[in-house]
Amino acid sequence: MKVLRETIVSTARELFRSKGYSGASMNDLADAVGLKKSSLYVRFPNKEALVPAVLDLTLQETFGQRDLGSRQWDVEFIEVIELIAATLIDRGRCVGLHLAYGTSDDTPIAKDAVRAFFQAHRDHLSSILSRVMPVDVARDIATDTLARLEGATAFVAIFGEKDAMKRAVRLSIEEAQKAAETESLV
Amino acid sequence: MKVLRETIVSTARELFRSKGYSGASMNDLADAVGLKKSSLYVRFPNKEALVPAVLDLTLQETFGQRDLGSRQWDVEFIEVIELIAATLIDRGRCVGLHLAYGTSDDTPIAKDAVRAFFQAHRDHLSSILSRVMPVDVARDIATDTLARLEGATAFVAIFGEKDAMKRAVRLSIEEAQKAAETESLV
DNA sequence: GTCTATAGAAAGATAGAC
DNA sequence: GTCTATCTTTCTATAGAC
């Protein structure tokens, strides 16, 4: 029976998230979706080609059906980072970071996809923030917000602790609002 | 010719850092230190046993010859986190985090070693901070500091950017000093 | 303690039948 | 599009000579 492409991609995402790029095998993936290994090569030329597909799906789910600019900047900002934080707590790890650490010059397509993935995150947050502050400030706060979320994820992964993530969300929102106020006074 | 145990461990660390637990092979390690693969099994019973050795060495290098309590708390705090930040920028990745993501219930010894590694980091920072603030506040600030450093490392790894790390160090120091001042006024 | 040699399993990927 | 079967390489780990 035909298996949907999205099933393969989202299953590959779980494998990459938990086992990393080199730890996830095509055989594991085939078993998980109910196919034989060779059938995967009909849809994807090789293992590396799964990486852009996995990250594109994740970007789509995070930013896809979002109507940019129709609401208050802070409502949008809070909604996005709380969605990201909730996913990171739920899954316990960041698939993007695991792939970032697990790819190298040996896997240039995967490496490029990882860069694009994080750049898209930064650009999206930055575009929300830049409505109420200069672009360079917005970019730094977007970067620091993502860094905080990634770092807090480490404590979820290692100790199962969610507290650091909650503080990361709260502090990032406070930092953004403070910057917005500062700039509006100039 | 005999190869020093420390040479094997520090070489294994570089392999784990860049390729992760499953991506690093015993053959790569043997080649890198100038031994045959089978000779490694004389010193280490298996690949997993390298993980505690790698993380213990790193802990020793970070906290080993440090005389706790002989100087001002903030001098010690700044010195430690700047050492960690400098290493993370220099190597481009955190071996602890790569191993945290790369180990699982299949590798319980490695998983335990990773937990101990991060707990030791948190305990060390927390013990410095708790000289001038309550232990629960100290623990949260220690956690957030480590999370910030880990998150900033992602931007070093992915984009080669060092700015986020510089801000992480600066903001962590400011946060600690602010908490110390607040508590001294109570 | 290091070596050669090898076992045994698992990896990525391909060929060809249906 | 999925399957069986296979190729080739690489993996962890062990046995035994020196």
TrEMBL record, chains A, B:
Pfam families: TetR_N
Keywords: DNA-binding, Transcription, Transcription regulation
Domain HTH tetR-type residue range list: 2-62
Record-annotated DNA-binding residue ranges: 25-44
Top-rank taxon: Bacteria
Cited SUPFAM superfamilies: Homeodomain-like
PANTHER family tied to this protein: TRANSCRIPTIONAL REGULATORY PROTEIN (PTHR47506)
Protein name: TetR/AcrR family transcriptional repressor of nem operon
